[in-house]
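Appendix B. Extra example for self-study. Work through it before the problem class; the solution is given directly after the inputs so you can check yourself.
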Amino acid sequence: MTTGARPSDYPPPFAAREFVGEPTDPVDERIEVGILIIGAGPAGLACAIRIGQLIEEQPELAERLGDVPVAVVEKGKQPGSHLLSGAVVNPRSLQRLFGGRYRIADMPSYGPVHGEAVYMLTRRAALRIPPPPTMRNHGNVVFSLSRLGRWLGERAEEGGATILPETTASKLLVSHGRVVGVRTGDKGRGRAGEALGNLEPGSDLVAKVTVLAEGTQGHLTGVAIDHFGLHGAEPQVWELGVKEVWKVAKPLDHIVHTLGWPLRTAKKYREFGGSFVYPMGDDMLTIGMVVGLDYRDADLSVHDLLQELKTHPKMRSMLEGGERVAWGAKTIPSGGFHSLPSSLHAPGLLLCGDGVGMVNIPTLKGVHYAIESGRLAAEAAVAALQPGSTPATSLGSYDAAVRDSFIWSDLHEVRDMRQVFGRGFVVGGALASAMTVSKGRIELGKLPAEPDADQPLLRSGRAASYPAPDGVLTFDKLSSVFASGNKTRDDQPNHIRVEQRVARDVAELWAHMCPAQVYEVGAEHDDGTVTVQLAPSNCVQCGAITAKGGRLTPPEGGSGPEYTLT
Amino acid sequence: MSVLVFLEHHGDELQKGSLGVLAKAASLGQGDVSAVLAGGGVTALAAEAGSYGAATVYVADDASFEPPLPQPRVDVLAKVIRDGGFDTVLFANSVLAADIASGLAARLDAGLNWDLADIAVESDALVGKRPALQDTVFVDVGWRSTPRLAIFRAGSFDATPTGGGAPKVETVTVDLEPYSAAAKVVGQEHEEASGPSVEDADIVVAGGRGLGAPESFALAENLARALGGAVGATRAVVDAGWYPYSAQIGQTGKMVSPKLYVALGISGAIQHKVGMQNSSVIVAINKDANAPIFEFSDLGVVGDVHEIVPKLTELVNQRKGA
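Solution. Structure tokens for the complete assembly:
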């Protein structure tokens, strides 16, 4: 039954200008740092590490950067707490960043990929197919991004960076048209925003250069793109990934990708995605499901599709006798080349990594682009601080460096691949193969991309057929939130901006979409709309709501999941 | 091994949690166990500690210890540990105990193991058991140096008298460090409560969304009154504004381990379970036969709380009257 309501019919109560302003702390109370990095993920930490190396090479630079040359603001409990990825990582950026000082073998990886298999699934069968050219992973390395983040955090601190965990960057400080830092979020406010006994107000962190490396759905990245008018040729779109880590009886010796079931191939559903299973050493593996958020079925739940996937004989046999030890969810920007911002810098500001959508969806890779962009941002920021340069005007070298890098050429090569899947799975798959084989030389003409929230909704009733959780192989959402380590304080202000009275289908969409059970469909009104009830402390900050008609803002610092193995 | 247990008291009552830790320490069979108590007019409380296994109780009895502040107690413990040569110091978790233990760890440069659920002596080594990965496994933890400090989770051990006799009472006098006297208590507010607090109660009647409406919490309150217990609530109903946060039981609320836990209209999400799974007897009443709570309740009743609970309350009242 098609109703055609769109999430974008109910825009969230949110305006970028709420989160842009002049510094407000008295001058002597502002915290001054040299280069300020927002986000301790691969991009931000690579940036901090590279600046540390440059300071080592040019000691006079330290003087120019002041008492705190580099600060990294991180909203999670520690670097890695909010990091989640597959992750099969192309090691080239890590190798380049450390230049032999550390080898891949020194890092906390689960070793190189030793073979791979791609399956087309049906409900009961698995047909092995040759890996598409983009999905060949020889030479790549399996990581837990959360663990890699912790390790990179240690390296950044070794290089002199100051990491400020449990701190959110809530507001972009702009003075005379130039970014001069961020204001950190308050801690210790009650549900209505009232001051509690332990209120710690935020502070103004001012810097010569601010680097936003916030990752997917970055709060201030979105604000900066709006404020400085940096929107790309096409709107950004996202996919939602949900994954689990399992302790298993027998090790897996190769990586697995699947296409097909439990996703439906009919064009009207727009279900683009697949699953992955990666080995994590002798006794663990990770299994995940990724689905494009341009889907239309309000009954679709990636969390529950992953539960369904695990009941497939192929998956069940890998998990038999095992135990789930971790769970998490995160969005992945998937617009690719056409959705990159028109510029990656603004006065005083640089933008990196997933926040601006440096992800190659056909190859399922982004970590190495994040690291490379962080490294290039470090070099541009430092160059802008040389005598004769000013950070207000000379950060453009970063855009030039990204354009000359493999980030640009890789993303250009696959630029139209994601969009073709809007034509249905089979046609899309054929076109994607043709593009790969031709190394991107086929011009299809640019395909229109619509924001995920513009897709008209339909209801298929499939929610009734998700497997009932048994607590062993399959789980309910609240158990999953628990396994994410999330124990967020319940009585803090709501950080999720959504219209709270919407068409029933939109409310159902959010309730099913959210892997952490934040949204519930409440009472119906006379005009047929319903109230959306929120449980914001369940939120694992995956960002799906921003793609589908709402807006995620940062909760109190230190809230959210505490990922360690994802 | 020489073990010292910190005894916390409220008014003229020793806290059950710390007596439980004391009883556990005595049961390790590693020689005499001592306890330490600091407050104003608390010497009389020392005798009770004997029946939970304390051979000696060190008492710092002075008006300056009356306010429940951590730093003066750090001074007391530091002195007792040094003078008595204690190598192991155990605490039952509370806000005060957590402050004292961390202050002591800093003062003595000692290792502190946090959130332990059990302790044992294995091959002559003291081993702490700490729940990890959201309580799905126990991790063995040790200490690299002495003294070894440990804090146990609320409800880890039963406060069962061991039948020991009167302890030796040693008076402790301490010159407070200047910074230890810097904090003052300017006032204490106590929350109005009609019955026992939900954490201390032997019986807890908790309500969830299955009650249907905030008014229905009267069912839980009436049953709790009849049983002489306290009322608890799930996060969902606290979120919905049906009941105050102070009654919330679960991962982000209170951890309880009463003798009897009655769950009314509670589905049993794991976030709630971790807050009450150590209850001795769990009784659940829920309409939904598939509710997870029935997997870990001792007695499960599938039915409507609105019909069952009033009758149950009446029966309890009759039984009490009889």
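Self-check: The two ends of chain B are 53 Å apart (CA to CA). If your reasoning did not lead you there, revisit section 3.
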